[in-house]
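re: that chain from earlier
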Amino acid sequence: MRNGPGEDAPKCWDVMNCPEKVRATCPAYPEHGTECWKITGTRCGQGEHDMKDVSVKILHCRSECRFYKEYIKDKFP
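^ sequence. v structure.
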């Protein structure tokens, strides 16, 4: 699997302005902030979407997620 956008890339929770309460329950936090799109169970949309199903998550990331569109899409089309 290819690497994420790099250590210098912003973390998804910073781009999406996720509150600490949401971050604390998200499996991407604190170690996978540039690879959230690979992890099921994330708390996308500031906790509004609980992404437990990988097929739903992929569709959401590709069509609705600002972090994915701005930092990931061109590297992992």
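The first helix runs from residue 12 to 15.
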